[in-house]
Predict the 3D structure of the following.
Amino acid sequence: MPKVLVSDQLSPAALQVFRDRGIEVEMRTGLDPAVLETIIGTYDGLAVRSTTIVTSNLLLAAKKLKVIGRAGIGVDNIDVNAATNCGIVVMNTPFGNAITTAEHTIALMLALARDIPAANSSTHAGKWEKARFIGVELYGKTLGIIGCGNIGAVVADRALGLKMKVIAYDPFLSRERAGAIGVEKVDRDCLFTRSDFISLHAPLTDTTRYSIDAAAFAKMKRGVRIINCARGGLIIERDLLDALHSGTVAGAALDVFEREPATNHPLFGHEKIVCTPHLGASTAEAQENVALQVAEQMSDYLTQGTITNALNMPSVLAEDAPRLRPYMKLAEQLGLLAGQLLCTGLTAVRVTFAGAVAYLNTKPLTQIVLQGVLSPTMESVNMVNAPVIARDRNIAVTESRRETCSDYHTLMQLTVFTEHGTCSVAGTLIHDNRPRLVAVNDIPVEVELGTHMLYVANEDKPGFIGRLGTALGQAAINIATFHLGRTAPGREAIALIQVDQAVNGLLLDNVRALPHVVQAVALRF
């Protein structure tokens, strides 16, 4: 039974999702980091919000951990790179709080436009400073959205309802998508010069960190107002303060700060700043939605292998999982076979999908192939960290598809390139979706791979099979199946023998010493 630790507050309904899926779940909040490190090694999953900090040290202690689920969109508190290197899937819930965060953005924009917080404080103080609080209308103004993904698109929709003009900068926003949601796609500098209000909805990455700096403020329309409900690290806060003092920025509404909790900040107390304590996702509906979603996603992964909203893995949808599952077994076997036949000096891996498999989501299959190729020579390799390991070792990985396949209804072909040579293996699925090896180095052979196998490449000469069988018999190794293939009579030949026991080193040496043997490898699957 998989076991999940919930280290930040989730609702009872979310905990029940785990239990209903047959998963043992414990909620222990407010744990000291040292205590968390001592207990994390017994869990398969970790569910967090934003309080728990998932460090590389914690991940190194998490020997069984397979998945980290973040109930929310931001993963600043999770070392995603370290998790990937450890082979741990990191999931978030990017859709659960989109409406809530978008509504908070609009609320802050209205508050900023009409000086509502300051007017509220003044009125509570018994003053009647009607002339002091002269605001601006949103009607007819231009809102510039930086980052027009899920939340940005909802903000755009609400702003259009207020009769604002909406422009957007997002490198991943297509013209077609922009037209569909009613915004004009522009470049970054154009957005700065045209916008009366700018709302940030970009993720915090190496590219976007500190992207709103003094140079950016200098390009903005004088009197612009800034709203940030995304991530505090997008803005250089001291540059924002300077822009407020100069009048370039007429006001700013901030729900996020570079360092949180922000209890003492240079921006606090400024009359043109509206601040809230990271409330973007803080509605009862959103908190419940993301809690339920992360529980569902983690449960699906731990029980079915379904991957949804992962940050370091291609998604495997629930409807795709049953169709991919037999191909996953085939991909693993092909990778392991190639990795054991050519296991050193790896330089490149090429995977070709032909026929029926070419129409599926093949990204996970490529990662499983890569896992199999690397596993014979490396420890702790899985489909999550295999691409990172390959990249770090300058192993080129390519994938191609062919819609048709002449001899089979579906085919996967793997070619592995090393400093010492090339190995090519191919496989298909037969009836009942069982994986079947159909070629090794372009030599046709039909083999259902078993746990213990012996692979022999040899020159096709009379009497060889008898000598090989004798060697196995003298070693008291029982043969389960025996499969042969060759290019032509008297030319290159291969044998794949399934045996009931592991092939030991002495037997392997004896087989290699037989006349006409080119290669002999003990295989395990």
